[in-house]
Design goal:
Blueprint: E1 2-6, H1 10-23, E2 27-32, H2 35-45, E3 49-53, H3 61-66, E4 73-78, H4 84-88, E5 94-97, H5 102-121, E6 130-135, E7 138-143, E8 147-153, E9 156-161, E10 167-168, H6 172-178, E11 184-186, E12 191-194, E13 198-203, E14 209-213, E15 218-221, H7 223-233
Parallel strand pairs: 1-2, 1-3, 3-4, 4-5
Antiparallel strand pairs: 6-7, 8-9, 8-12, 9-10, 11-12, 13-14, 14-15
Length: about 240
């Protein structure tokens, strides 16, 4: 796995690198000590995993993730425990309190490796694939081609098909890795759409776009994904 360490303390970065070297052969693809530089590095390096401090100069860890449309695996590292619940709203893999213990780090890395390996091994699901969905007492066998919108709720995702919108225990990051990118497009950090359900494209402020879906829903494309949508629809 390619790892990026985002931490403003040089000593903390050195300590984490030392712990990682004690555990195994991990590739440190980059380091950053501030939020602005971190965003740039994530977009350039495309790390598989980020160790992300919450309190950083320039932008905090949450603000960094809010600027990304494609978020790698994230392990938050912080000296404060009050942000634990909020961290999982950002699909965080784990939350490590400083000082980080070797055993605790090993457990977090085991989870990261398992997810990373599954992503590499998994095959893309075709739009004709059928999936079983259970939400409370209700169950469905749903063809992926009938799902027009996926919406992130932390480690859960709400899926929209016909008049139904159940929640499933899959993160949007995971779904992005198994859905066919020719059919399903991530328009923002929060949503993936089925391109075949797009009925219209409208200009929005600051050069962004809004898409009208056949369901009647209107979704907003993030600024970073707007140029890709324009290319897809020759807008």
């Amino acid at each position: 796995m390619k790892i990026l360490i985002v931490e403003d303390s040089r000593l903390a970065r050195q300590e984490l690198k030392s712990l990682l070297s004690d555990i195994g052969n991990y590739t440190i693809a980059g380091e950053s000590d501030n939020g602005i530089q971190a965003v740039k590095q994530i977009q350039e390096i495309h790390p598989d995993l980020i160790f992300l401090d919450i309190h950083l100069p320039g932008q905090n860890g949450f603000e960094i993730l809010e600027q990304l449309d494609q978020i790698p695996l994230v392990i938050f590292t912080t000296a404060y425990d009050e942000y634990a619940i909020r961290s999982f709203e950002y699909n965080a893999l784990d939350y490590l309190l400083k000082p980080i213990s070797l055993d605790r780090l090993k457990k977090a890395l085991q989870k990261a490796e398992l997810i990373h390996q599954n992503k590499r091994k998994s095959h893309l699901l075709s739009e004709d694939s059928q999936v079983f969905v259970k939400d409370g007492e209700k169950c469905w066998f749903v063809s992926l081609k009938d799902i027009h919108l996926f919406e992130s709720y932390g480690n859960y995702t709400r899926i929209y098909f016909q008049d139904n919108k159940p929640m499933i225990l899959k993160s949007l990051n995971y779904l992005e890795g198994v859905l066919d990118p020719k059919v399903y497009f991530r328009i923002s950090r929060q949503q993936i759409i089925n391109l075949k359900y797009v009925e219209g494209v409208d200009s929005w402020f600051n050069g962004k776009l809004k898409l009208r879906l056949q369901s009647g829903q209107i979704v907003e494309v993030s600024r970073r994904q707007t140029h890709k949508i324009k290319e897809l629809f020759s807008f």
